[in-house]
Amino acid sequence: MARILVLDDDPDISTIISQLAEDAGHTVHTAGTIAEGLALLAGTAVDLVFLDVRLPDGSGIDALPDIRKAASRPDVIIITGLGDPDGAELAIQNGAWDYIEKTSTLKQIMFSMDRALRFREKGRKPALIAIKRDNFVGESQAIQPVLENISIAASGDAGVLITGETGTGKEVIARTIHDNSARAGKSFVVLDCASLPESLAEGELFGHVKGSFTGANATRTGLVGQADGGTLFLDEVGELPLSIQASFLRVLQEKRYRPVGSTKEYSSDFRLIAATNRDLEQMCAEGLFRSDLYYRIKSCAIQMPPLRNRLEDVPVISRFHLGRLCDKYDVQAKEMSEDFVRAMTNYDWPGNIRELVQTLERTIMRAMDEDVLYPEHLPVDIRAKAVRRSLGGAGEGVAAPVSAASGDFCNDLLAGGVPEFKEYRKQCLGHVERRYLERLLAEARGSIKEACRLSGLSRTRLYVLLKEHNISK
């Protein structure tokens, strides 16, 4: 029998669900706050959590990632008294198994519970293959769904659509899927649709025969033919000319194509992976992208989170690329100081991983002969924005000025003599950060969502700071 946690501050609802679960032979635990629920999950293996959206100490949806990463990896059914379709969609996107209302009948609640437990027992997720990751690093909570989807995509042959902001590493994800698939020994062919002139699109994709147009001095195999047996990666697929989308859809369905100027069709057994930073669904609504092609290429969808939502991965990503860059420039390996790592994680990286790599490259140029990297080696614009963000200056709303108490603390550090500058700065900055966070949580009344809104910090960054300063929510 299963172990179930009912996390709801409404005693009537908690009693009803508990009784239903116990009558079915399950072991039931209850909690009335997120803190109580997380504490119970830390010491008790749970299979399924019924989670209220509105709890005394915060939002259940906000707490979903923490609940899902408990050691027993419980499934979650969101249950609320509010008919909220946006909240339902958000809950599912964040890993909830189902979303039901408190006004649901007992039969509906039981159906959802039984279905979740049945799929869990049989193994709701396919057996995940061990992923070979030569170029893709990161272990944050935000990246776990990506890793799972890579494993699922690599085990099959369906089309994959990777979405995310520019610079998040969508091509790296595509290559990782290819390298872990049965097609790994074949070609990985890349086409950047953003740089594809409409007049050349057909020839580039399908090839051409000699003499088919002016300048066609030789027969040329197109990218579809080159990808036979392997993977065709269409980067920025939203830029694929509308005029070519219909013919490409047919090729995708039939796996047959005709080169420009040819009367003969050829076959190509290719697997399609596409990527975009645009909203293809909106483009379909506006007539800018064919909806039939859109649904064809998104059999498996992977959303790549921006780097600002996975800042805990910044140190490991930095170390990975730092080693490669040092080899590239033939300079000695370099270590990252604690202050350097702090500055890197205090910056929100609007350009994502691409910006981070370029920043490291500029940093190596500034610290060519030095063994250790310090914040002073970072470009001034990056360092300035990181300092501003660390003090909460990136957001609007609550402002926590440096009070006299903060000044007294810094003055006291100088009372016994002048300490080393780096240590002095570290202690002063830590003191200011802690005072800001305490004030922020007080102003937000313990709500992480409200604290993020007031401070401008991402949820991930806020959790990192709270953990760093040992501050309880």
Order of strands in the sheet with the most strands? 2-1-3-6-7
Q: Estimate nothing, just give the exact number of structural domains.
A: 4
Rg of Cα set? 27 Å
* Apparent shape: flat
- State the CATH architecture of the largest domain: 3-Layer(aba) Sandwich
- The overall pLDDT, averaged over residues, is 86
CATH topology of the largest domain: Rossmann fold
Number of strands: 18
Overview of this structure, please?
With 473 residues, the protein is an alpha/beta fold. It folds into four domains: 3-122, Rossmann fold, CATH 3.40.50.2300; 141-305, Rossmann fold (3-Layer(aba) Sandwich); 308-390, Helicase, Ruva Protein, domain 3 (Orthogonal Bundle); 391-473, Arc Repressor Mutant, subunit A, CATH 1.10.10. The protein contains 20 helices and 18 strands. It has helices spanning 11-23, 34-43, 60-68, 85-93, 106-122, 144-154, 170-179, 201-206, 223-226, 242-254, 280-285, 291-297, 314-328, 338-345, 352-366, 380-390, 404-413, 421-443, 448-455, 459-468; strands spanning 3-7, 27-31, 48-52, 54-55, 58-59, 75-80, 98-101, 160-163, 188-192, 207-208, 220-221, 231-235, 256-257, 266-267, 271-276, 300-303, 335-336, 372-373. The strands form six sheets. It has a five-stranded parallel β-sheet with strand order 2-1-3-6-7, sandwiched between helices. Strands 9-12-15-8-16 form a five-stranded parallel β-sheet. Strands 4-5 form a two-stranded antiparallel ribbon. Strand 6 (75-80), helix 4 (85-93) and strand 7 form a beta-alpha-beta unit. The longest helix has 23 residues, at 421-443. The chain is flat, with a radius of gyration of 27 Å. The protein starts with a strand and ends in a 5-residue tail after the last helix. 33% of the residues are buried. The model is unreliable at 393-405 (pLDDT under 50).
